[in-house]
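User: Modeling request: complex.
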Amino acid sequence: MEKNLTIKDVAKKAGVSVSTVSRAFNNYSDINPETRENILKIAQELNYKPNIVAKSLSSNRNFRLGMIVEDYNITGMLNPLVFQIMMSFKSTADKLGYEVVLLSTNTDTQKSVKLSTIYSQKQFDGAFIMGLKLSDDYYRELIEFNHPCVLYDIYINNPNVGCVGVDNTKGSFLAVEHLINLGHKKIAMINGHKDAFVSYERLDGYMLALNRYALPVDKSLIYYADFTDQGAAAAVEELLIRHKDITAIFCASDLMAIGAINALNNRGYSVPDDISIVGFDDLYLAQLSNPKLTTIKQDAQAIGESVANLLINLISEQRIGRVVIQPEIVIRESTKAQYLKANP
Amino acid sequence: MEKNLTIKDVAKKAGVSVSTVSRAFNNYSDINPETRENILKIAQELNYKPNIVAKSLSSNRNFRLGMIVEDYNITGMLNPLVFQIMMSFKSTADKLGYEVVLLSTNTDTQKSVKLSTIYSQKQFDGAFIMGLKLSDDYYRELIEFNHPCVLYDIYINNPNVGCVGVDNTKGSFLAVEHLINLGHKKIAMINGHKDAFVSYERLDGYMLALNRYALPVDKSLIYYADFTDQGAAAAVEELLIRHKDITAIFCASDLMAIGAINALNNRGYSVPDDISIVGFDDLYLAQLSNPKLTTIKQDAQAIGESVANLLINLISEQRIGRVVIQPEIVIRESTKAQYLKANP
DNA sequence: GAAAATAACAAAAACGATTACGGAATTTTA
DNA sequence: TAAAATTCCGTAATCGTTTTTGTTATTTTC
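Assistant: Request completed. Predicted assembly structure:
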């Protein structure tokens, strides 16, 4: 195992001091352009790269970002969106010169080790937290947190913590409006769970659309299915018993939408001929299902980028609280006009 | 932003020198047990945690692992298996006291920055590389690599690099054997692409099973579909033209299996009544499809753990080359007995 | 009971960078 | 042309640890 090159080796080879080499590498002003060029050339030849650990320690700028994801996103049927957002976040962080270290938490670990402890121990300049629930300990800690932090899909009113997410209310509105435009009047909603911030926003959008088009809101049409396909299937079973006259269901996730479609098929209903379905997320899964899913698209790439940019702005003391990504509706095959049932 | 506690603060409060505090934390022998207890208690009270960056620099043990994933796993329809393996790897690395930093590569970046450069710059003790292709620059570099490294789903004969993966040959064998046992005699295979190591192993398993049961191998029944659903759909189109008499298709991934099923449905064929399909991976997707997919399960949890353990063994100079995970067949609804066509 | 060994700690030198400070050479100013 | 400013670079302190070496008591050995 060959010994690693240090700044000293470069300095010796270039016949200058280490501080000069450092200056060359960090674009300092007080260095002769010729010297700089020469040093960089020699460094290039030697294939020298500064040791990032030493750099962190000495500069007290760590260029380290934590990416903390809740465990429940990992086990079972995990959300591919999370993965895409993570990778997008990583890529833009990379471009901006930050490395990202991966962490996970769950309700238990949150009780034993505080977020601020993680920051100081890990020397994070900031962190990106995904999958935080309203009932989490970290959610409470974040209310008065004083380190840079960015959250996805949950909002906290604290200048140190940024929040990015799709406009869920608008997304839901778009979904339900689309159904209404197709002539549907009795539209059920299968929501996530009540510990998720987005569930409230998505519910708002649903109600807003109904109100806007002067349709009655029937609370017995609203189910909570925990973001799982089985949960959605169970909800559909109940819906088919209690509300035989529904013609459309808006699901707060694609996975639940698939669960709903499968349950409907099992009961002999056809999507979209009997019942229209719209999902939320636009996972790749939405193109794979049969019929292909009409859904609300969350742009994972854009979300990841926004998170990284926001976080790094926060680190450099620029306070920008919230980034809202605009959702789009993607119309495929799971929704259909329902004029016949519209006015019986 | 409160200043972080250092070892000095603990030393001062405990009335000892910093070296004694360090000894207390690192289970050194030459320290009075009472002193140690006292120091640990005080550290606990102060909520002091050692700065990992300083620790790395001074001890020259970094406890840092790189997790490098190929870009093509990110864009487009990404494989959820990769995500699960990543998280499982992270969790066990965590338990063993290592932090993992996330990186990505692609064919281009591999040309400009060598793997060994990444190691020295990032101060990695080791790295886990996912998605490496046979045509990659890093593959070539790894042949004579002298840092600890573990690969998933690709094999290299080098004591410094470990390899873990499912027994692909056996997995394919199981899949095809299952079809043969159901009475299928004309079985097509839709493989991945030729830059993937696993494609060769999976092909081997297919041929092995045919030979074992004295069925002829017809190379025109073997397609390469790039691991995509569209590729598989295209392959199916061709198969339906050229080989109307096939009764089963083995796909080297679940995604391709879904693509095949959809294509068959579009052409008016029923799965499994007309044609049986088996996939590979056992993604959650396999349970969501209609019919539910019979497939070969890769245990992501076990793979991630094995990779982490193997890598850390490699780091501590213990040479264990390869870990092979046993695949299992999961029989669901996409395969069915085909006695009628078996002997016409 | 003097020499040797051990136990328990402190002092100081690393680790590999950044950066505050200072100083010589050169250029600008008056 | 002397003083001031600027340019360019070296010296040395620093970051928060670990680790080597040193030191003082105490214990063991013969």
